[in-house]
Every structure is written in C-alpha cells, then in structure tokens.
Amino acid sequence: MKLSTEQLRQLALLARLRLTAEEELALATELDAILGYMDKLNELDTDHVEPFKHAITGLNPLRKDRVTNRSDTESLLANAPDRDATFFKVPKIIE
Amino acid sequence: MSLVQLTLHEAAEKLRKAEFTAVELAEAVYERIAETEPRVGAYLTLAHDKALEDAARADEMLKQNRRGPLLGIPLAIKDNFLTKDLRTTCASKILSDFIPPFDATVISKIRSAGAVIIGKTNLDEFAMGSSAENSAFFPTHNPWNLERIPGGSSGGSAAAVAADECTAALGTDTGGSIRQPAACCGVVGLKPTYGRVSRYGIVAFASSMDQVGPITKDVRDSALLLEVIAGHDPADSTSVNSTVPAYSDMLAGDINRVRIGVPKEYFVSGVAVEVGDAVRKAIGELEKQGAMIEDISLPYTEYAVAVYYVVATAEASSNLARYDGMRYGYRANARDLLNTYTLSRAEGFGAEVKRRIMLGTYVLSAGYYDAYYLKAQKVRSLIKQDFEAAFRRCDVIATPTAPTTAFRLGEKIKDPLQMYLSDVCTISINLAGLPALSLPCGFDRDGLPIGMQLIGKHFDEATILRVAHSYEQSTPWHRLKPKLQD
Hints:
Shape of chain A: flat
Largest sheet of chain B: 11 strands, mixed
Largest interface: A-B, 50 and 72 residues
Strand order of the largest sheet of chain A: 1-2
Strand order of the largest sheet of chain B: 1-3-2-4-6-5-10-11-9-7-8
Number of strands of chain A: 2
Distance between the termini of chain A: 39 Å
CATH architecture of the domain at 3-258 in chain B: Alpha-Beta Complex
Helix content of chain A: 25-40%
CATH topology of the domain at 5-43 in chain A: Histone, subunit A
Helix content of chain B: 25-40%
Oligomer: heterodimer
CATH architecture of the domain at 5-43 in chain A: Orthogonal Bundle
Radius of gyration of chain A: 23 Å
Number of helices of chain A: 3
Strand content of chain B: 5-15%
C-alpha cells in the first residue's frame, strides 16, 4: 500500500474532508491502484525536459489595476448559508 | 419533420421566413421534453417561463427584421455555466440551491445573440466523470439505448441534443467531456483551442484544460455556435486576443490535398474492433474526397491518462477548496470552524469528487510534488511536443473519439481506473490545448453510435470544421434519429 491509514487521515484533514470508516477503506484501495498506474511516468527519463507552462506560448497579458465591477452586496450575500446584516456569519473561530 | 428535429441553421432560416414563431418552437421543445424526459433525464432545471418570455421577445425582433445569429433558438446549457437568477448546481449537493448573481461571459454572448435558454443539463458532479453517473441527482440515459450511459461529463447536453429536447447545446471539456458524450450520443461536439472561448463564469475544475464548446446536430451548427461564443474576454486572462473567423462561411471549400495524419497509437488493442473499423472507413472516405492520408506516430500517447489524472486532480483539489460552506453552498451543522469545513465537504461532495480532491492533495503535498506533479508537467511537455512534430507533417489528425461505444449504466462506476481509461483518446488534446471535434461515423452491431475525432492545430478550428463538413455531406449518420425505446 502506498498510503497508510495514518497518511490517509492526514491527507483528508489537509483537504478538509471528514471520511467515514468505509470511505477510508475504499479510498486506500482505489488510491493505491491509481497511484500505481501513475508510476508509469517513471519509465521516462525527464531530467532535461522543461515542465509544461501554458498551452499557448508567449501569452502574458497585463491589464490596468482598476475596479470594473460594481459592488453588489445584496446579491453576493443572497447565497450565504448564514448572515448578519451585511456580513457573512461563520462559526466561532477563537475559543 | 417536426420542429424539434430541425438543426440550428434550418430553424434560424425558417424563423426568419416566419414559417413558425420562436414561441411555437420553444413550446414544441417543452412538449418534446414532457414526452421523452422521463426516460432520458437530460435536464436538472427547466427555465420554462423565462424561456417563453425570451422567445416572445425574439419574435418581436424577428417581426422588426432584426437579426441575431441565434434569434429564437432553443439551447440547453450544461449546469456548470453560471446563469443569472437560474439555479446552477454542477450536479452537486454542495451547490444544490445556488442561484448565480451573474452570467458567464458565454451566456451573456448567447443571450445577446437572441438564444432562448431552455434549461440546465445534467453532468458528472463538477464535470468529473465519463458517464454522467456521478451526478448527485440522477443518471442520464442514452437516447439510443436507455440502458447505456450518454457519456460524460456533458452527458445531459449530448443526450438533450440527440433526443431533440433542444436545438443545440453548450458543454465543457476538460479531458473529453464534450467529445466523448457527443460520440456516445451520435451528435457533433467541438472542443475549441484553449483560450479560444472565455471560461469566465464556468465553474472551475482544471483551469489549465477547461474549455467551453458546442454540442450540435450537425457541423454547420457547430461552426455557427462557435462564432457566437468565441473571442477575447478581459475577464479571462487566458482567453486569446485574436480575430474570430466566420467559421460557417469557411465550411464549403473542398478538402483536396488536406493532409490527414493517422496515429498508430490510437488504433491499438484497447479500441473495439467495430470502432477502429468505422473510423478507418471514414478516413478512407476523406481520402476519396481528396485528402492525403499519412501514417504518423504520437509516441507519448500511452502516458497521457497518467499525466492527466495528476494534473487535473491537482488543479481540482485547489479549485474546490472554495467550497467551505462559508459564503455560499451547503453548510453542515458542526460545533466549530474546522468541523464545519470537514463536515460540509463530507456531506456536500460525492465519492468521485472526494477521490479526486484526495489524489490532488496527495500529488501536491510536500515530499510528493516532484515525484508526481512536476514529473507529470514534464511529460505533458513531451505530449505537446509530440503534436507539434506531427503537425509539421499534417494539417489534421484523425482518431476514434472513444475506445468503445456507450457502455452500460453501472458497468464502470465501481472501478475508477477503468472509468478514467475511457478518456484515453481525448485526454492528450486537452493536455496540449488543441482544438478537436467529434462527429458520427457509423454504428456498431448493437445500434450504438461511433464517433470520429478530428484534431487541429492551435486556433485552426476552421480546418477541422471544413473536413468534418465535407465528410458529413456524403454520409447519412447525422440525420439518423434514436427511437427512444427500452
């Protein structure tokens, strides 16, 4: 196995996912198979190959740093799970 | 012929000649949906009232002889395009109640061109999948055989076009998500060059590969829709500032002396015999029409799936970090901030999305970045160079779109790696940022459509459209209709 249960749990925490015991079990096998397949890339010697940067070379557009969208607090807050006046309301962060 | 069967260009002409109204056309589409949708399941949301208002407005404009390339045309939109005031779910529980505050650039463009948005179509959650089975709501069925998958991720859009539940549709394609469902459903699907169409307002999956494109009943419709949606957008810094050709005016030319490369790596053992045969026969037809056929090689093809599932999952794990239950989307009830994050995401995302977030987090994590992500980006360079070398010898590359015809619902859902391998013919094209089109080129013995993929040089959509159009003129496939029986 490429991933121990401990590693899998640490990874889930980094990704902010809570996994059930069944999910952990299934993922351990599935990720092992997929990562094993990815090992195929090690057949290739890429020491002198530049990593890919962009599909279209030479593209590096710049624009003026200017606000173009109008502020629309109400429509941005319309989808908030919880709000208080013009604020997003979130669970307590500091104990 | 009923109104719903018309292609976009046929319907547009008849609307201009006032043979029927846009309201009549939209009503005919909704009647068709009422009849076939219980079996197909292509739509997640219908926009009935707004669509009829828009159709009535199109009729007013038509009466005043105003022109718009899509005036009164009923379109279906994949549910990962933001549509102002119209629910956009990405087929995910985490966005099941999300009402976008703005339109994607492409949606603004089709609205200004006069299109009538019929509804939002089903997809694999966050466009992750090849069968539309990863939808959090329900699977879509292939109109040619209701026990088969429609392909994915734009399965709802392709099925809606094939079942005449719209005149044409828009999809997105990150690893084959327009072309593979188009092949499975016997319709035309085009993934434009990376940068050709704005991605602003498209729910991001893998930003270095995502691209918007048309799914249509024929090649002319594909050209017409591309003309409307293509072009530079200051809101998408990866969209390219170059002139958009009048693609539909460039279809007519002959294909004499067009050099078509046939890569041997795309006709190997994993490709079904009937698929390989149909595509070879189609290439023979192109040769009869004057094209020059050349055997070529793309030696790094066999590494494409591995590269893709490193790069795409890495980008996805980063893009999907925004779904934290704070500003929009589903929020679970938990005792503190960390548990609100982890539980909201655990309950909001489906199995495939979690799998990809985990993979992406792994390949980007300290100690593994070089071995996976950096390695994959190096091999991606080799794949891009493969195509650059090939395109010095040919103008178009022809391959199967998918290794098999549509498989059975449930057949691959328990085996993620097998599911990933169904994208083996389409993935390299996204890695290299090239344009490619899938069009029908026959049927297998079970009556399921087969697709041929035509790949072009960067920004040379015009040539693949012209070759596809030339093929379509001499073949009947695109005019055949599914019977929609169990």
